[in-house]
Here is the input.
Amino acid sequence: GAAPSGSRDAICGYRSFASFTRPALNNILPIHHDAGADAAERVAATTEKGTSQHLPTLDLALPGLPSLSPASDLDAPETELSTLPNGLRVVSQETYGQVTTVGVLVHTGSRFEALPMNRGNTHVLESMAFKSTTNRTHADVVRELEDLGVFPNTVSAREEIMYQIDVMRDRVPKAFEIFADVVRNPLFDEAEVEEAKQIIGFLLEDMAETPQTLVNEELMCTAFGRDTPMGQSLLCDTNRLKEVTGAGLKSFTDAHYCAENLVVSFAGLAHDEAVALAAEYFGDMPSKSSIPGVSELRAGALAPPQYTGGVHLQSVPNLPFTHVGLAFDAGGWHDDDLVPVCVLHSLLGGGDSFSAGGPGKGMYSRLYRQVLNRQYWVESVLGVSLIHSDCGITGIVGSSEASYSPNMLAMMCYQMKDLARNAVDPVELSRARNRLKSSVLMSLESRMLLAEDLARQVLTYGFREETEKLMAKIDSVSEDDLIRVANRAINSKPTIVVYGDTSAIPANVAELVEATLHSP
Here is the structure.
């Protein structure tokens, strides 16, 4: 039978909206004196007899509440760029949110570690971020950032080091003062350096067990020569790690941390506020390094690298799988074929046996459909593109049991050769373009990635390209473009990396790969 009157109220612990009378409704939704009689009459009309009429309809503005401006009344977010008198660049984009991401991108990295005493410094600097400064202890930095609700992050690379913080908009000024102190005045306390070195040592041990990162690193080192600026490893090996000191890190940052090498980015702040903060805390920073010889060292590091290709076999016993990489010359961020190379990478896609794929995960990509779904012995296979300012490589990496590693290399060769000789299906090309566009656009929904993109584009190009223009470039990539970049790739000398049990790899692997790539 029907529940007793009021039983639902008793069970829920509160009265439902349907049980409110008109006087009760008016008590919680008072008619503002500025709303006018018309608004009062409309509310009264919606609260007449009948349960369905007890509440106002959703198409009526609730009286007494402030009016909200529609998003269409706001200016569309635009990238704004300014340069301070000392040469420091400030780039920002408003997001109209309550959280702001701030970044400082420093144009230095392992590419600039030409001196033996500097090798591995970039890797250690990543772990030394947000430690003690000349003005604050490490405990002070941590406490103040936590009090402000700041999320810090640091990433190092071959050509840049990116420092970032994420903080509520109204706390940006105080957080930025601490942030600037961390970037400009690191103390490099020797005890903290030793702690960072221990952490890096543990991470290197973990990488040896899950070596996908190491394979990509070795591909770059082999492709350009590990004794060249671009081919130097970003990772600080265990022997060099023992020699890193706080004094050496300070010397390195003193040499490269100057205004002309920095870009400060803001995602979620008005540009005039961003420029004012950057001027206050970075405006007195020297434009250039005062250390003798630094200009010549940087010029040497930035000389155009020469792609050489080659073979690197690293025998590591007792790994469950052997990891294989095959890559080719692809040009850099300024190359005319940059966008087609990125579409080619998207088309290759891939995955591993652990993941069944899904939207955006590449289950309809070529490597997933033609390799992972058909070859039971393939543990993982992925397209890879490692692009830098003036050079880059593209290819395929994968893993399998050691006995199948020659099959893995052969499969990679056939995939690249097929792309160079046969036009892709229009549907497959459309999927690749859409996958790339969605990846770019979804990434830019993240403030932290937006702030990073702002800084990297300004550092690389001197401006930020409009997203609409980039989408148009992706849409314009044709079947002929992919054939051209694939032919360019396989006509360069291959770069081959094998990590794990290498016993099944023949001694003349480079000749076999080239013969397979160019066979009828």
